[in-house]
Structure formats: C-alpha cells, structure tokens
Amino acid sequence: MVGFNRRFDPSMAHLQACLRDGEIGETELVTISSRDPGAPPAEYVKVSGGLFRDMTIHDFDMARWLLNEEPVSVYASAAALVDPEIKALGDVDTAVVTLTCASGKMAVITNSRRASYGYDQRIEVHGSEGMLQVTNQLESRW
Questions:
Q1: What residues make up the domain containing 80?
Q2: pLDDT at 141 > cutoff 60
Q3: For 32, 47, 88, 112, which has the most beta carbons within 10 A of its beta carbon?
Q4: What percent of the chain has pLDDT over 90?
Q5: Is position 140 within any domain?
Q6: 41: exposed, middle or buried (C-beta count within 10 Å: 0-12, 13-18, 19+)?
Q7: 111 SS3 class
Q8: Domain total for the chain?
C-alpha cells in the first residue's frame, strides 16, 4: 500500500477519477504548487532528509499518480531563500522540478517553505480537451 496521504484526500481522489474517466481527454501537463506556511524547526531539518525527501516526495507521488506514467527524466533547481538556518544546514527551502515521461507528458512542481497566506496545495491538469484543478479549501472566502 502506498502511504502518501494526498491520494486519499477527497478532492485529489475525485481529480484522479475524472482523469481516469477521460473527462479532459489525454493528460498533457500537471502543475503542482505545494507551499508550507513556514519553515520547519532546525531540529527537524537536520533529520528530515531535506526538502525533496520530506516535502517534494508527496508531489512526486501525485504527479506519477495523475500522469499514470513514470517519468524518464527529472530536472530540479533549488535554493535557500526563506530561512538562513536551512541554508546553514545544507538544505534548500524553495524548488522547481520538471518531470518528463516517455510519452512527452510533463509535470511541473513548485515548492516553498514559506506561504505567508497559509498552507497551499493546488493542482492543475491540462488535457487535450480541457483543464481540471484542485484549489485550496478555505474556511472562508471573506
């Protein structure tokens, strides 16, 4: 069993079902934004395995699940822009990743340890016949 929790989020599961049912034709591009409200404590960063291993890994799983195909190439660019302590520990806090599959399907993932507006998890899937998205579930729109 895969233990990545986002697959069990009702919005994400519905998105995947829509893709499986062909609602937007062939999937071409998945765009994932994943941002935390703030950097984790240094004690966590020291043992977490880094941004890619403790945060982006969830987005890698979502991309693979939604594309329904394994990537054959991965390109990543990252920096420590949010917290100097993270940089001092040899980690990064901001990243952009591009995954490309053998069919040409792609996913772009953006990560940040800072979202001053709160926890941010959004996905957009562009297909040959339309687009689907999952946006943040807000407590209030006011």
A1: 5-134
A2: no
A3: 32
A4: 86
A5: no
A6: exposed
A7: strand
A8: 1
